[in-house]
Every structure is written in C-alpha cells, then in structure tokens.
Amino acid sequence: MALTLEQVRHVATLARLSLTPQEEERYATQLSAVLDAVAELEALDVSQVEPTSHATLASSLLREDVLRPSLPPEAGLANAPAKVGSAFAVPKILE
Amino acid sequence: MSSLTDLSMLELAAKLASREVSSVEATRASLERIARVDPKVRAFLRVDEAGALKAAEASDARRTAGSPLSALDGVPVGLKDIFLTQGVETTCASRVLEGFVPPYDATVVRLLKEAGLPLLGKLNMDEFAMGSSNESSAYFPTHNPWDLTRTPGGSSGGSAAAVAAREVFGALGTDTGGSIRQPAALTNTVGLKPTYGRVSRYGVIAFASSLDQPGPMARTVGDTAALLQLIARHDPLDSTSADVETPDCLTGLEDGVRGLKLGVPREYFAEGMDPEVAGTLRASLEELEKLGATLVDVSLPHTKYALATYYLLASSEASSNLARYDGIRYGQRAKDARGLKELYTRTRGEGFGAEVKRRIMLGTYALSAGYYDAYYLRAQKVRTLIREDFTKVFQQVDAIVSPTSPVPAFKLGAKVDDPLSMYLMDVYTLPCNLAGLPGLSVPCGFTQGGLPIGMQLLGRPFDEARLLRIARAFEREHDFFRRAAPV
After folding, report:
1. Which Pfam families does this entry report, sorted A to Z (chain A) (predicted)?
2. Among A12, B275, B329, B461, which one is least packed by beta carbons within 10 Å?
3. In the prediction, which pLDDT does B129 show?
C-alpha cells in the first residue's frame, strides 16, 4: 500500500517529528515498501487467536504501596536543558 | 605470542586468584590494547580509564585482604552504551542524548560493580539499538576486527568488536531481535540472549519493552556462563523481572550433549542463506550428532511471518518509548524554538537519526486510529502463533539448532539505504524474542575468506544452562576462540 505525502505528514505530526521535504519523500517510499512487506500477515486467519503482549508474563505485578527513597530534586534536574529553581523550564504554553 | 589480553575471563580470574596477575595489570593491558587497536576498530564511544583503574586498585586490595566479591572480581569488561552508568555519559549512540550523565546505575551495572569488575567504558551501537550493522550510530560505525572494511553486526556491534579485538575480556549487550547473537556470530564471539525477564531491564534504555533483554558477550562459553551468573537476578525495580533463582550454569557445563534431542527447523534452512554458512552449519550438525546428540527434523510453520510481526511490534513499542525524548527533562533541546510544539518536533527531528525516525514513523502509523487493528493487534495475534510453534516443538526436543545469521559480515555501506534488506539480517534471531526464549550464538567456523560463522541454539524458557552446555560441548572440539582477529 502506498503512503501519500499527506499521510506521511499526518503521522509525523502525531509523532512530533519535524521532517524535511526530502525526508517526507524518502519515508513515503520506504514506509510504503515496508507496509507492502508486512501485508503478508493478512494471509493468516487470526480471528480465533488471542494477542500476546508479553511472552512470559502471566499478569502484572504489584508492589507494596510504601515510601522508598527516590532521586533528590537536584539529581533529577541535573540534566535539564533549562530550569528555573527546582523546576524544568519550558516555552510559554498558552499564547 | 600470547599476551594478557588473550586470556579468557575465567583464565584471568584464576591468575587473579593465585595473585600471579593483578587487576591493575589486567586493566592497564586492556587500556593499552584499546589505545593501540581502537583507532581502527572504533568500538568505544568513551573509555573510562580513571574509573576502571580505581576499581582495579580496589579489587587488588580485596584480593590482598582475601575477600574478593565474586569469582570475576577484578576482570575488566565493557558496556554497551545503552546501560545507564552513574556519572559516566550515556548516549545510546544518539545525538538526542549527547551530554546525558545518568544520576543512577542500571541494575546490571550495579551488579557488576558489586561483583568487583572494573568497567572500561561505553561501547558503540546502532542508535537506540535499531540496526544490524552499527552504521546507524550517530557518531561513527564500528569496524569488524576480522576485516576492517566490514560491519561487526549490530546493534551490540561495539560490544562484539571489543570482545573480538581483545580490548575487553567480556561485555554486556542487549538483544531485541538478535542484537547480541548476530554481532557475536559475525565476530567469532559467544553471545547469550537470556529468557525474557531473566535479567533486569531497569536502567537499560528502552527500545521495545516486551522484547528487550540484556545479556553477556564473551570469547568463551564458560565466560558467558560466569557473566550470566552475576547479572541474572530478580529485580523488584523491573516489573517484568522474573522471580526465579539465579541459574547454576557452570556446574554442568562440561556434561556434553549425549542423549539430548536437538531440533533442526526446516524453515531456518530455507533459501537466502549464504552457501558457506549453510555448509558450515551442516557440518556442525553432523558433529553434534557424533558427540551423541540426536537430530530431529522439526517445523516452526509461522517462521515466515516473524519478520513482519517483529517490525510492527518493535516499531510500535519504540514509537511509544521514544516519546520521552522531548527536550524538556534531559538530553538535547532544539535552539530558539517558538512555542512548545515546535520545541518537541524540532528537538526530535534534529536529535534522531534516519533509522530511528523511520521506525517511529512506522510504529506511530501502526498504532494510529483506523490502523491499530489491522497492524498492531494483528501482529500481536501472529506473535501468539509463533510462540505456540515453539511450545509444540519443545515438547519433542531439548533445544533448537540453526544458523545465527544468514550471511557472514557484510561490507560497511552495503545495506545502509535498503531497510528491508537490512531487516533480513535478523530473520533467524527474532522469532526467539517474540517467544521470549533464551538464545545463544557460538562460533562454528570461518568462511574461506576468514570471516566468522555462528551457530544459534534456542531453548525452553529459563533453560540457559542447557544451551551453554551444548555450546560448550561444541566449543571444546574446536577452541575457535584461540584464533585471534588480525587487528
């Protein structure tokens, strides 16, 4: 199945990826080829098959709801590209 | 001429125990070897000389005091740059994480430190472990020590190349679709992908969380077993970590293959395999038979759907996992963005390489409204069929034998802009990840041109000890690891 440039741009928006016009062209071609290749799964009747999300996991594990030490704020902020006091700094969200 | 760096981990450990060699001497030998050959091999993204030597000195002090922390106390190893290391930059070979200094250690890193192993530094890989040649590293490709014009495989290619080039005695890698086993096969080294859940993923940068599994890479089967013993621990910090005992892989290692039934899946010996790989594998199978194993022809009928299933599931999980690289909390942030949305899109557009973007796009598409059922959910159902194939076969046999990679190491640049051809490199390795099984690659020979060939063994869940035992029975006949790469 062939992806249009418009579809590629829509997916890039969903993925929050800025793409150059050349990248849009290239991904339209390459992703179309990959989708053609994965279309072979349509040959299988899976109507009676349960999906597998994790191969060996029987059920989700829960832990006791007790306090334990976590990263101190200065360690958590140490890699921030921008910070204000003890918070991550971001551009203005509301125009 | 044999030098210190040619020793296996267990041989070095014996010399450390008898005080014939010190950990500082071994660590210096590794550092000198790195300085000499790594400008050609380019396995390391960064070397932590000071940290490794400090750990080696502490190890020697423990040996003097008669209180080593483990059998491998003092044996220097390397880490794929996917493992968080407190205070040592960790990039996952991506520009988006350039300059990131983790505030904590991955569980496996902590376990190696607690066992006394000096850590020599961080090894190159495909960006975010997406690739089969190390060429998608944002920094530089790693070269295969057996032929510097060829790839060492990927994504743990830096780890495999460093082990093969005798720069490190062993290393840790991760395997999502073959990323430990395929580079091991291409470099004459041993690589083990443990059962999903056997080794903690805490602090391992996530690619596809239902498939990722850290594991040991080394020159010998015994070293691989010894490293696994150190890192196979239940970890409450990883909710998918299996609550099982650490396996004893060393006690029965020399027990041989007599009486074992080994399945040979006909789908794995189909077209597309290099004739020298096919020939070497057939000879290896005959040899396992001579050593007392029984070969059983088996079928894994859904094998041909594994590649499509894998690329849909792994890319979907990756598109979700990599949403965290948004330029807010760590890593790189695009300069002068106008508004939050532009900050996100430009940070990610500038920070990720071509292969990572390709997979994020595929995964986002497969998960998007209107396509989820047709792609993601369908792939999860086919995953069930693939898993059931293995369950049935393991009622008949003790392990499965196949080639690891359909071809030996290929030329750098040969497949860079042909993603489908590159994805085919993992055709024999990725069903194992979909089924959550343990898998191992052990050297089984060389092409006439001198390129290594690997044999893959797949086992039942948590049956790593048996895979190592079979691999050891084969290794004992050859000692391929004594053959050093010409670098």
Report:
1. GatC (PF02686)
2. B275
3. 98
Domains and CATH numbers, chain A: 3-41 (1.10.20.60)
Average pLDDT over residues A21-28: 96
DSSP summary character for residue A87: E
Interface contact B326-A16, CB threshold 8 A: yes
The alpha carbon of residue A68 is apart from the nearest alpha carbon of chain B, in Å, by: 12
> Average pLDDT, whole number, for chain B?
96
Residues of A within 8 A of B369 (CB-CB) are none
d(CA B90, CA B109): 13
pLDDT of residue B391: 97
- Tell whether the model's pLDDT for residue B112 goes beyond 60: yes
User: Which residues of A fall within a CB distance of 8 Å from B333?
Assistant: 81-82
Average pLDDT, chain A: 91
Residue B1 has pLDDT above 60, yes or no: no
